[in-house]
Write a structure and sequence with these properties.
The protein is of the alpha+beta class. It is 16% helix and 40% strand. Strands 4-5-6-9-8-7 form a 6-stranded antiparallel beta barrel. A 3-stranded antiparallel sheet has the order 1-2-3. A hairpin with a 5-residue loop joins strand 2 and strand 3. The longest helix has 19 residues. The structure holds zinc ion. Zinc ion (ZN) binds next to loops. The site of zinc ion has 8 residues, from loops.
Length: 171
């Protein structure tokens, strides 16, 4: 099958979005799919032969979450919670933190990237779930420069994912 590429940035790191509305389901039957770029967040339509999207049917997220290990802070008027990001995509992340913030709260999100790289700010983010030990955060608005740097970080995580498995020291 011909590989899909993002028309905006050219990357093959794209993901077919499973449609839920009647119109989308009809389009899907005609082999027309909505696709979300995993790096620049562009959304576009593509035709694919056949009618199978089985490889990701188990996961309805528009963005694939990648395992991560970064510190981050949620800011309301002042820093409100901090913790470790355990998975991340351009659409949001899971943060290991305890917080009194409630679902639906709008916050600013600051990712403290790997050493040598500055913080990445998400100007507008929303708390979308709260568990005893973790918080789900949805990213809503980036500064273009921050968005680009976040895309670069996601690309690096993707490259790590696709690297051949390292030899395990376990025998
Ligand atoms: Zn793109």
């Amino acid at each position: 099958m011909k590989e899909l590429h993002c028309p905006a940035c050219g990357t093959p790191c794209v993901r077919v979005i499973s449609g839920t509305s009647l119109i989308e389901k009809t389009l899907n039957r005609l082999s027309i799919f909505h696709v979300r770029c995993q790096l620049c967040t562009a959304r576009f339509q593509a035709r694919r032969p056949g009618n199978r999207v089985t490889s990701q049917a188990f996961d309805r997220r528009e963005y694939r979450r990648l395992p991560a290990n970064f510190a981050a802070t949620l800011i309301l008027d002042q820093p409100a919670a901090g913790g470790l990001v355990t998975d991340i995509s351009m659409g949001g992340c899971a943060l290991q933190a305890t917080t009194t913030l409630t679902r639906g709260t709008f916050v600013k999100f600051v990712l403290h990237g790997p050493s040598g790289q500055g913080d990445i700010n998400v100007d507008s983010a929303m708390i979308c779930s709260v568990q005893p030990q973790s918080v789900g955060v949805k990213f809503l608005e980036f500064d273009p420069e921050d968005k680009q740097r976040m895309g670069q970080l996601i690309l690096e995580l993707l490259a790590d994912q696709q690297a051949p498995p390292r030899i395990s020291s376990r025998s």
